[in-house]
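A.,

Following up on our hallway conversation. Structure tokens first:
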């Protein structure tokens, strides 16, 4: 796993790999600057998919991915002590984003309530994603979402 504070480009798949693959990871310290850095990581990753691999990534997909990463990393920074990990991977025509943090408590979507201030992040993520999965890990939890990359 690479440790970064921002996006550093697509990685090779391993020794002797023919070129870039559709996967990248970044680790953040959990401080407030982690949220903006993770948003930049997601945008850079998708732009590189488009430029390096010719994947048809729409501007809308980049914006949606940044929103989702922002919400998930905000929750990690707010509720979990220590670092968080963001993985992005192209799987078929979809982007899978996984965010790991050290808090084992699983997120809970609240019923919509327009008057409530805050705590709408998971509602937003569920509304814009094609898939959502959360699992406890030996330490903490991993939230994985799936988004199309070629939508307007």
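Then the amino acids I'd put at each of the 152 positions:
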């Amino acid at each position: 796993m690479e440790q970064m504070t921002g996006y550093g480009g697509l990685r090779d798949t391993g020794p002797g790999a023919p070129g870039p693959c559709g996967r990248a990871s970044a680790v953040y310290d959990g401080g407030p600057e982690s949220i903006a850095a993770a948003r930049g990581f997601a945008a850079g990753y998708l732009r590189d998919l488009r430029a390096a691999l010719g994947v048809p990534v729409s501007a809308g997909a980049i914006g949606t991915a940044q929103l989702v990463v922002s919400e998930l990393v905000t929750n990690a920074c707010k509720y979990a002590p220590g670092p968080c990990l963001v993985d992005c991977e192209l799987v078929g025509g979809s982007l899978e984003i996984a965010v790991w943090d050290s808090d084992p408590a699983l997120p809970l979507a609240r019923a919509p309530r327009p008057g409530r201030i805050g705590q709408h992040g998971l509602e937003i993520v569920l509304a814009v994603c094609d898939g959502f999965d959360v699992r406890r890990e030996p330490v903490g939890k991993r939230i994985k979402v799936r988004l199309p990359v070629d939508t307007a």
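Confidence is low (pLDDT under 50) at residues 1-7, 12-19. Curious whether your intuition agrees with the design.

B.
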